[in-house]
Amino acid sequence: MSVFDDRKDALEQHEFQMGLERGRLAVTLDLLTDALVLVGQHGVYCQSARQPGKPAMDVQLIDKCITDAKDLVSSVMMELKKK
Description:
By secondary structure, the protein is mainly α. It is 81% helix and 0% strand. It has one domain. The chain is built from four helices and no strands. Helix 2 (8-18) crosses helix 3 (20-45) and helix 3 (20-45) runs antiparallel to helix 4 (57-82). The longest helix is centred in the middle third of the chain and has 26 residues, at 20-45. The N and C termini lie far apart (33 Å).
């Protein structure tokens, strides 16, 4: 099943409120946020042997990549809003 089928209601709502491009980006941000939550939960159980109290290095890298992606998507949304 495609994301357009899975997230049909959210896409319709956000596209109606914000327009096609910004609406899809908003749903993308929601998906990235959900992924960050899952990574954070995994990081609780997957601790680093070298850095006690911190998630394993791969979990830290995934967290950073998703956070960076959210920042980029947010910046595109802001640019679209200005136009």
